[in-house]
Amino acid sequence: MDRYEFIDGCFFVLKIKSMKLTLQRKINYNDIDRYYDLKIGAMIRMLQEAAVLHSEEAGVASYQLHEQGVSWILNRIRLDIHRYPKLGEEIIISTWSRGIKGYKAFRDYEIFCHNEKMASISSIWLLFNKNQCRIMKIPEDISSCYDMISEKACEFDLDTWKPDKKFEPDLTHDITTRIGDYDTNGHVNNAVYFDFIETLFAPYMTNGRRIFSMNLFFSKEIGSDVSLVSTGSKSGEPGDTHFFKLFGPDILFACGEAFFKKNFKVI
């Protein structure tokens, strides 16, 4: 039976099918960029909502974890975008747990528009003990709540990928944080990192040139004491590969690589 949720000013249709959670969502004006394409940051916010709702259905709600002094934090993510959804399109977001091993929880997603696959996403999450300020092994009473599906959304091996943390950027851009960037953990929300990245790469994303794949490693949280975040990029080989990072004085917040295509599929 379908359930209807009202989240962030939008109606979602929530379906639990086997061990997957599926959300139906219409792309609205707040979700799009100047080309009427879904922004990557907006996409990540939708994925977050799907993950939160899936965990609630599994009996591991975020407020319950908060009461225990722990929270999930995103460690790394892979995006493969096949086509950007446009304003007014109806999309289906599907998410599932791909397994929990030791300190790592593996979660995958797919986004469809009708029968067309729009995006494939893989992610790795860690459990953070707020009281001890450290990553903790995921206990059995949490891992046992999730039914596992071994199906992989992306072929890329995210777990073994080694990001370049030490490159020197040839393009930099400083961004001021805002109060709305922070989440319930008091840190800049993961989705905002993608807003920063899209701002950094805005000069490249013209005339159908878009990011079609991205790997991102989260190194350290951006706390409420940080008012300015530096972003930087460097072209790699081939020419439409760009390394990027978010950083401050003597600190790395995140880094990764983005892959661009010219004349990327848009409608």
Q: In words, what does this structure look like?
A:
By secondary structure, the chain is an alpha+beta fold. The protein is 15% helix and 42% strand. Strands 1, 2, 3, 4, 5, 6, 7, 8, 9, 10, 11, 12 and 13 form a 13-stranded antiparallel beta sheet that branches.
Structural class: alpha+beta
Tell how many strands the DSSP assignment holds: 13
Q: Return the average pLDDT rounded to an integer.
A: 91
Question: Tally the helices: what do you get?
Answer: 4
Q: Low-confidence parts lasting 5 or more residues at pLDDT below 50?
A: 6-13
List SSEs in N-to-C order.
EEEHHEEEEEHEHEEEE
Compose a concise summary of this entry.
Helix content is 15%, strand content 42%.
Please render the helix and strand layout as text.
Blueprint: E1 3-7, E2 10-17, E3 20-26, H1 40-58, H2 62-67, E4 70-81, E5 90-101, E6 104-113, E7 116-129, E8 134-136, H3 140-143, E9 171-176, H4 190-201, E10 210-218, E11 228-235, E12 241-248, E13 251-261
Helix pairs in contact: 1-4
